[in-house]
Write a structure and sequence with these properties.
By secondary structure, this protein is an alpha+beta fold. The strands form two sheets. Strands 1-3-2 form a three-stranded antiparallel β-sheet, sandwiched between helices. Strand 2 and strand 3 form a beta hairpin. Helix 1 packs across helix 3 and helix 5 packs across helix 7.
Length: 193
């Protein structure tokens, strides 16, 4: 199949699906290796980078999705209902960070790291589709396991979890020390009350 036809098929499938499509599915449809599909998508994105184009193909783990360029959202809002915006508080960001770096992780494990209950934060992150249930841990009580979603990758502009910034050991020690100080302060306040 010639390259222009491959591009047309990829574009048509991504447009029609409206959501992410796994590379394995494109491989099945096109009957060409996934590496070749990635090469063609890279060429398509080179064309889409031009100022006269309003779309691009986002790469998400082992899937791709046809998306509107972020700089054009203001025009979409004028036509469509404004997308629902959500606020990620410090608590939500802390919880999300723990889940992103430790996944699959249980609610109890997140609470041990944060030192406080995280029911509300986990429920909000589920509502915002930034995390999802991945199954259950094979342990007493069979607690739920949580991990991030493709929406998480889109929201934070990363292709995969491997693109998340690495924390160095010094930063981790600083975070641990800060968390311990917070716990001590809360304990002191509780004793005073």
């Amino acid at each position: 199949m010639e390259e222009k036809k491959i591009m047309a098929v990829i574009e048509a499938v991504l447009f029609a699906m409206g959501d992410s499509v796994e590379l394995s599915k494109l491989n099945h449809v096109l009957e060409i290796p996934e590496d070749r599909i990635r090469e063609v998508i890279a060429k398509m994105n080179d064309k889409y980078k031009k100022a006269d184009r309003g779309i691009y193909i986002a790469e998400l783990e082992d899937a791709v999705q046809l998306c509107t360029k972020p700089e054009l959202y203001e025009y979409l809002i004028k036509v469509a209902k404004a997308p629902r915006k959500y606020v990620l508080t410090d608590t939500l960001l802390e919880t999300l960070s723990i889940i992103a770096y430790k996944q699959p992780v249980t609610r109890l494990e997140v609470e041990k790291i944060r030192g406080v209950s995280c029911d509300h934060a986990v429920n909000k992150l589920l509502e915002y589709h930034l995390i999802q249930e991945l199954g259950r841990l094979d342990a007493p009580g069979r607690p739920l396991l949580f991990g991030t979603t493709e929406e998480f990758l889109r929201t934070f502009g990363v292709k995969s979890l491997g693109d998340l910034p690495m924390l160095n050991p010094d930063q981790m020690e600083d975070f641990r020390r800060e968390a311990e100080e917070e716990i001590e302060q809360k304990a002191e306040l509780t004793v005073e009350i």
